[in-house]
Structure formats: C-alpha cells, structure tokens
Design a protein that fits this description.
This protein has a two-stranded antiparallel sheet with strand order 1-2. The radius of gyration is 21 Å and the shape is elongated. 69% of the residues lie in helices and 4% in strands. Helix 2 packs antiparallel against helix 3 and helix 2 (29-47) crosses helix 6. Residues 15-19 have low confidence and may be disordered. It has helices at 3-19, 29-47, 55-71, 76-84, 86-102, 110-123, and strands at residues 51-53, 131-133. It has one domain (24-133). It has 134 residues and is mainly α.
Length: 134
C-alpha cells in the first residue's frame, strides 16, 4: 500500500474518534447521580441536628469521580466548569428540592429532614450511605 493510501486509511479510522464529542458531564449518569446523592445527604445533614454527613466519605467519592471523569477524557477545566456552573447548581438544587418535596420534606419543618434522613440510613440507600445518625 502506498504511503498516501495508508495515510487516507488511517485518517478515516482516526478522525471519527477525534471528532466524537463527549457528552456534557451532567449527562454522565455515574458522575451526576453520585453528586446528586451527596448533595441531598448534605442538605439533610444541614437541616437535621440528629444526623450528620459522612463528609470524608463524600470527599473521597468526589475525588474518585474527578478521576473517573479524567479517565473519560474530561479535563480538569471541564470538570471545574461543571461543578462551579451556576446553571448546574440551579439544576441540581431544583432536582434535589423536587426529591425532598416528593418525600414529605418541608423547609418549614426541620424534623421532616430527620425523618427522611433516618429512612435513607435504614435503607442504606445511595443517599443514606453519606449519612450517620448522631
């Protein structure tokens, strides 16, 4: 095969991979969902005095998520832009508040955070693993 033909074949094979765009991090379920669980757990621990957050566990998981995102091809700048984005924070807050409301939580009733938090702990749910009863 001539050098030109080889170059053309390699270009056809390599260019699609280079052009293939990564989805926004918000669409990477394994990362976005875990951050959501941590955010809900944090909100519960902020409003319920009898439940605390497992902050070191959450920090360790977040470092793992950063590493996973890097391995998926996201730069540190892309990751930082995602976690610092006001639009993403607003989206996550709205999603979290909808979950809390659907589970009977009201900001006017801090005990409702405790009720949900205790249920999450007892179920050892994706949220509950980030919580601890005091």
């Amino acid at each position: 095969m001539s050098g030109v033909k080889l170059l053309i074949v390699l270009s056809v094979l390599v260019i699609p991979a280079a052009v293939e765009a990564k989805p926004p991090l918000r669409e990477v379920k394994e990362i976005d969902d875990e951050l959501y669980y941590i955010a809900i757990a944090n909100e519960i621990s902020d409003y319920c005095p009898s439940i605390s957050g497992r902050r070191f566990k959450a920090i360790g998981v977040m470092w793992g998520l950063k590493s996973k995102a890097n391995n998926l091809g996201y730069s540190d700048g892309e990751i930082r832009a995602y976690v610092e984005s006001d639009a993403e924070k607003d989206r996550m807050r709205a999603k979290g508040e909808a979950y809390l409301t659907a589970n009977g939580v009201s900001y006017d009733n801090p005990k409702s955070f405790c009720t949900l938090g205790q249920a999450e702990i007892e179920r050892n749910s994706a949220i509950g693993v980030y919580l601890r009863a005091n």
